[in-house]
Design goal:
The complex is a heterodimer of chains A (about 500) and B (about 375). By secondary structure, chain A is of the alpha/beta class. Chain A has three domains: about 5-235, 3-Layer(aba) Sandwich (Rossmann fold), CATH 3.40.50; about 250-330 and about 420-495, Rossmann fold (3-Layer(aba) Sandwich); about 345-415, no CATH class. Chain A is built from 18 helices and 22 strands. In chain A, the strands form five sheets. In chain A, strands 6-7-8-3-9-10 form a six-stranded mixed β-sheet, sandwiched between helices. In chain A, a hairpin with a 2-residue loop joins strand 14 (about 310-315) and strand 15 (about 315-320). Chain B has helices at about 1-5, 15-50, 55-60, 65-90, 100-115, 125-150, 155-175, 215-230, 230-240, 240-245, 250-270, 270-280, 290-300, 305-325, 335-380; strands at about 180, 185. In chain B, strands 1-2 form a two-stranded antiparallel sheet. Classes of the chains: A alpha/beta (about 500), B mainly alpha (about 375). The interface of A and B includes residues 343, 346, 347 and 389 of A.
Chain lengths: ~500, ~375
């Protein structure tokens, strides 16, 4: 097998209002495992998509074996020898391994014995131990992942991009995967390994590149680098200084979680023994690498998930068993993580979106009837007060930019003087101006006694807004920091499970 | 689009006027284009098989006589009710293809109840409507429950339930009804429960059925529920984005059950105008008009789930069916009108999609243009 040498030089990618990648440079040497690490939202996915031809780059170039290339689709990337295994497997359960692999690549070796022979050869060569005739539905997660890798090898890939491949694996499976990866690079392939688990990165990678805020901020040699150094590179060394305004934190608890444990549908515990109090006038920031239980924490407070044990109180009201409507009616504003799916009905005009989530309270609804007049007037108030750039209340939410949509949502959720605001990534993907405006509004409401539970991956936001930081890791609150004294390496280590657990 | 038109215009007059003009165009143009396309397609087909498209168009666009007009009015009433039943589901993202089965069950239950004379006099009419609606709701709830608790697509279960409904109605009438000639029917409706109709057309045999007015009542009720009430808002939001509905506090599962039952309740009433107006008994296949449920889905699609649209679509379908009776004398099989109806629906779905996309794009462009202009002003001043 011929080797492959892939280099990205000065890659830039802009989306309306957001710069996703700028000046990203990365050299994946032949026969090496190259790890790409960084926080969520650091721009890793965008870079991957550009390397795999899903999106085109606005600036820079990709160089394969010394020749500049342009990919207009994944087909081009595969033809150049670059294949990708996504985090979510794309396999048909009711087909065999061979059928899954051949699907879409029928031209290579047909769909019969020749194809199966080729699959067996690859499987044996890299020690995958897969039987082409086995049904995919009978396979475990680790085997499915091998099928996905085999799929890209079958298509002739020599650089294999793996997006957080260990997220779905148990430790023994991780070891087995790493053995497979070693086998791959030992026989001429290259691997780009995307992760934010520092232990794993240090144990498997030959080269490490770190991304932060859309750009590559450094490289590290795994033989010499420590976890603390990597963590600092990931989260940045210079942390923003928190706002100097005096504290508005009171002694009055608004939200109180006591030993809350939550399990998902499969019975796996996603939140374990969470105890947390948000006081009136206080912003409690939840820091953590995404997927460590933040969404579940928000959902259990909002009544969208049920706690298996423990209790949740809003002031003096027990809301442990209440549904979303009842929780909202008790005075909770909710800025959901995904504004398009949860925050807005995109095809509805703004005034109807004003009603959304506030179907039980004036001025949007009175005595069971939607008050057109009330909702329109209040939508207009939000537009003015929160500086939402729109021609008017009849404009559909879809026509607005992300920042303006988000300003509208924040304005709506602060209507009716809520006691608590649950804000999940309130400024994700919005431009700097909208971000500053949203922060100002949250600070102002805090002064007036609002309690805020803030989930975010943006350290500027967490440190700039929070009165207290809690770190969530694998469903547990593992560390607590004062935002005015916390250091980048402390936070980074706590978030990635890289260091000692602070008390 | 009717909701938007009525909304007081914000901002200056010109964009508001343009918006209203825009919604009129996007609301009326698609069905118009669809009807023309359907006429064209049917004409081509008739010509291809050696018929005369000219005769076809002449018969269809002739002035209907009183007899046909009467049929058109009564049929469009029933089609409207069926369309409303389907639209309730559509607005929540449910494809209630079971309107057909639900109205069979509603008709059967209603006819058995009314015929039994359990409630005396005119009150029997009201009681029967309640029974028919409840029966339709209960039958629809089977599909609703299966969807919510077992994840069975309502389309699949409702199709199966449609067949079960027809067979079951036949069985029940045979077992508990009375023999009438070669078939079986339910007991006849007592005379004191037969409402007087409206004698509008002197030359037509029969009246505009009293309960055809049910279509108007249900139409207004449907509009009020969807456009004005909180429940209607939640129903629409669930249909437009179930995730947003969930986050806003709507219990989506319960909403699914209620919507399905409500749709079934209206479906249960579809045939009541005919039953009380002229048939007075129920029996399959002779003393029943099957197929109204499926047509209701088409009517709702063509009418964009809006009350006025549904009335218009129902009238159009009834008009085409009514006029098609005269096609025989022109030597054209009346069944070609099914092709016209089908093509109309197909064409209108495409046309609405095209108009909808164009609208969304032009709105986005307008917003960015306006904001650009504002920014320019700020910079200039």
């Amino acid at each position: 097998m011929t080797t492959i040498d892939v280099e990205a030089r000065g890659i830039g990618k802009r989306f309306p209002g957001v710069v996703a990648n700028h000046d990203v440079s990365l050299h994946i040497r032949p026969e090496r495992v190259h790890a790409l690490i960084g926080e969520n939202g650091a721009g890793k996915s965008t870079l991957m998509k550009i390397l795999y031809g899903v999106q085109g780059a606005d600036d820079g170039e990709i160089v394969v074996d010394g020749r500049p290339v342009t990919f207009s689709s994944p087909t081009d990337a595969i033809a150049a020898g670059i294949g990708m295994v996504f985090q979510h497997f794309m396999l048909a359960d009711n087909l065999t391994i061979a059928e899954n692999i051949v699907l879409g690549a029928e031209k290579r070796h047909g769909i019969g014995e020749a194809a199966k022979r080729e699959i067996r050869t690859i499987s044996e060569r890299f020690g995958f131990g897969l039987d082409p005739d086995a049904l995919v539905e009978k396979l475990g997660v680790a085997d499915r992942q091998r099928v996905e890798i085999l799929k890209v090898l079958y298509r002739g890939a020599r650089l294999i991009i793996l997006d957080e491949p260990t997220a779905v694996l148990v430790p023994q499976e991780v070891d087995a995967l790493f053995a497979n990866l070693r086998e791959l690079v030992g026989q001429g392939c290259s691997v780009l390994f995307i992760s934010h688990k520092l232990d794993e990165v240090l144990s498997i990678a030959d080269d490490i590149t770190v991304m932060r805020r859309g750009t590559t901020v450094g490289t590290a040699d795994p033989a010499r680098a420590t976890k603390a150094e990597l963590a600092e590179l990931m989260v940045g060394s210079e942390l923003p200084s928190p706002a100097t305004a005096e504290s508005t934190v009171t002694e009055r608890p608004v939200l109180r979680l006591e030993t809350v444990t939550v399990a998902d549908e499969t019975g796996r515990e996603v939140l374990h023994d969470i105890s947390l109090t948000v006081h009136a006038g206080e912003v409690v920031g939840i820091a953590g690498v995404e997927g460590n239980g933040q969404s579940e924490l928000v959902e259990v407070v909002m009544g969208m998930m049920r706690a298996r044990s423990g209790s949740i109180h809003l002031g003096d009201d027990d809301i442990t068993r209440l549904n979303t409507r009842a929780v909202r009616d008790l005075g909770v504003g909710f800025v959901p993580e995904d504004r398009h799916r949860h925050g807005l009905v995109l095809d509805y005009p703004l005034w109807e979106n004003r009603v959304l989530g506030h179907q039980t309270s004036a001025p949007a609804v009175r005595r069971g009837l939607v008050s057109r007049k009330g909702a329109r007037a209040d939508a207009q108030r939000i537009i003015e007060q929160f500086d939402v750039r729109t021609p008017g209340v009849d404009t559909s939410a879809r026509a607005l930019s992300g920042g303006n949509q988000q300003k509208f949502i924040v304005g709506r959720e602060m209507s009716g003087e809520p006691r608590l605001l649950v804000a999940s990534h309130p400024t994700r993907g919005v431009d700097v101006g909208a971000q500053a405006a949203i922060w100002d509004h949250i600070r102002e409401a805090r002064r007036e006694g609002l309690g805020v539970l803030l989930v975010s991956a943006d350290l500027d936001e967490l440190i700039g807004l929070s009165d207290r930081l809690e770190v969530i890791l694998r469903g547990r609150l593992t560390a607590r920091f004062d935002p005015s004294t916390v250091t980048a390496s402390d936070l980074g280590e706590a978030m990635t499970g890289g260091g000692v657990v602070a008390s | 689009m009717s909701e938007r038109e009525k909304a007081p215009a914000g901002g200056s007059a010109t964009p508001a006027a343009r918006r209203i003009a825009g919604s009129v165009v996007s609301g009326l143009l698609p069905p118009l284009v669809a009807v023309v396309a359907a006429m064209l397609a049917t004409s081509v087909l008739i010509a291809a098989f050696g018929g005369s498209p000219g005769d076809f168009l002449q018969v269809i666009f002739s002035v209907p006589n009183d007899r046909v007009l009467l049929t058109i009015i009564n049929q469009s009433a029933m089609l409207s009710i069926s369309g409303i039943a389907a639209a309730i589901g559509f607005r929540m993202g449910l494809f209630n293809i079971g309107v057909e089965g639900q109205y069979i069950v509603g008709s059967c239950a209603g006819a058995f109840f009314a015929g039994s004379g359990l409630v005396a006099g005119p009150l029997n009419i009201l009681a029967t409507l309640v029974v028919a609606a409840l029966a339709g709701a209960a039958y629809a709830s089977i599909a609703g429950l299966l969807k919510v608790f077992r994840g069975v697509s309502e389309v699949i279960s409702a199709i199966m339930l449609n067949y079960i409904a027809l067979t079951m109605a036949g069985y029940l009438v045979t077992k508990y009804g009375q023999a009438s000639g070669y078939t079986f029917t339910t007991e006849r409706l007592p005379l004191d429960a037969q409402p007087l109709g409206f004698k509008i057309f002197a030359d037509a045999p029969g009246d505009v059925w009293a309960l055809s007015s049910l279509a108007l009542i249900l139409g207004i009720g449907y509009w009020f529920l969807i456009a004005r009430t909180r429940f209607g808002f939640e129903l629409r939001v669930t249909g437009a984005s179930s995730t947003a509905a969930l986050a806003s506090g709507v219990n989506v599962k319960r909403m699914t059950l209620i919507t399905m039952a409500l749709s079934g309740a209206v479906a249960g009433l579809v045939w009541m105008p005919a039953y009380f107006g002229s048939v007075h008994t129920f029996g399959v296949p002779e003393n029943f008009q099957a197929g109204l449920g499926f047509l209701g889905l088409a009517v709702a699609l063509l009418g964009r789930n809006r009350t006025l649209g549904i009335f218009f679509a129902a009238a159009l379908f009834a008009f085409l069916s009514g006029q098609s009776n005269n096609l025989q004398s022109a030597g054209i099989a009346k069944d070609v009108i099914d092709i016209t109806q089908g093509t109309t629906v197909l064409a209108v779905v495409v046309a609405y999609e095209v108009v909808g996309r164009r609208r969304a794009r032009s709105e986005a462009e307008r917003v960015s243009r306006q904001l650009e202009a504002e920014r320019a002003e700020v910079v200039a001043s």
